[in-house]
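User: Here's a chain of 157 residues. Predict its fold as tokens.
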Amino acid sequence: MDTDATYQAPSVDEIKTLLTERFAGKVNVTKTETRRVYATLPKEIVHEVCEYIHEKLTFEHISTVIGVDMVDYMQVVYHISNYHTGTMIELTTNLDNHDLHVQSISDIWVGGNWHERETYELFGIIFDGHPKLERLLTPDTYEFYPFRKSYKLRGQE
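Assistant: Prediction complete.
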């Protein structure tokens, strides 16, 4: 397959092949289902892979950018949609708890801006290159992230 061609409505099998060929040894397609592709990748290539998905596979919409606290590490999960086929790609990258930085994708999908801000506010994941990475709802004086498993509610020990 031509990994430099633009695909208007790629099938799940085409997406799997294109991602694994274009990013050989880096993107791992872990499973596929009807109109769903699940893949893991290192944080260093998140922006590059997202650009490829947007520009060459015509995935127009970022549905969510969410954090997941796995205790020993954090995850960032991206849900990206193609309107022509109804297909969704789920990308997952792991972040070391001592280096919670990943490149922002808000320059690719403007809608990712708010998702990244919310993930920063709730988990403390930093999206490098984000145009306005600051809290949305909680006060700027908060020095904690309420969705981390290490966060203790009042009265808990």
